[in-house]
């Protein structure tokens, strides 16, 4: 029953992020090949091809990672098809590395719309994404499956972070009409949001991971 509930939640999550995946992939391709990228989105620059490549790969890989991470965590995949789980996990690792470094390259070259505050927290998010991906694979290869599970859980939380970021805005605007937010992303809500889209969720994940570890110790 527990696995069934987890699987149902992960499948629902994967279905809910599908629109974001399609949107991000389309936007990244259009922005990369447009004659005037700034007409596609303000994250692109007409005279910054290298930065545009970085953000395009960040968006495309990040979208695929957002969809692939919940599917990778399905208990049936881990238990019945371990080889598929390993191969898919390596693909997700590559996507996480591309997502993280693509975003970091863009921030280094162009910064972010919201200034240094947004740049700092987005760079922190990208660095954590890469760190979690590396540790997830490292402990899987060393067959330390408890630590692998812990780092994979953190990675999944971060993998859906871009979707959570947008959903926070959808909910907030539907409730308040956009109070505390502006086009420059310097409003109070914007300032909180660049932290709130991933840090609280990591803390919740950490709570359950520590609780899981204590339960394992009690059983032993």
From TrEMBL:
For the keyword Membrane, the answer is yes
Instruction: Report whether Transmembrane helix shows up as a keyword of the record.
Output: yes
Ordered alphabetically, the record's keywords are: Membrane, Transmembrane, Transmembrane helix
- The source's domain of life comes to Bacteria
Give the residue spans that cross the bilayer: 48-69, 90-109, 115-137, 149-172, 192-209
Task: Specify the protein name.
Answer: DUF2306 domain-containing protein
């Amino acid at each position: 029953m527990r696995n069934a509930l987890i699987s149902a939640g992960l499948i629902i999550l994967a279905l809910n992020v599908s629109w974001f995946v399609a949107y991000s992939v389309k936007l990244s391709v259009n922005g990369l090949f447009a004659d005037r990228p700034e007409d596609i989105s303000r994250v692109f620059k007409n005279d910054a091809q290298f930065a545009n490549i970085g953000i395009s790969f960040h968006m495309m890989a990040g979208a695929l990672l957002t969809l692939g991470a919940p599917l990778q965590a399905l208990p049936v995949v881990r238990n019945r098809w371990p080889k598929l789980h390993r191969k898919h996990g390596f693909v997700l690792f590559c996507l996480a590395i591309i997502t993280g470094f693509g975003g970091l390259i863009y921030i280094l070259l162009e910064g972010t719309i919201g200034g240094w505050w947004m740049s700092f927290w987005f760079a922190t998010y990208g660095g954590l994404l890469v760190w979690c991906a590396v540790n997830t694979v490292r402990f899987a290869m060393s067959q330390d499956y408890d630590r692998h599970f812990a780092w994979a859980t953190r990675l999944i939380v971060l993998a859906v972070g871009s979707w959570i970021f947008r959903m926070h805005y959808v909910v907030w605007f539907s409730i308040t009409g956009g109070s505390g937010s502006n086009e420059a992303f310097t409003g109070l809500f914007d300032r909180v949001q660049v932290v709130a889209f991933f840090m609280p969720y990591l803390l919740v994940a950490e709570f359950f991971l520590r609780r899981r570890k204590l339960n394992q110790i009690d059983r032993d």
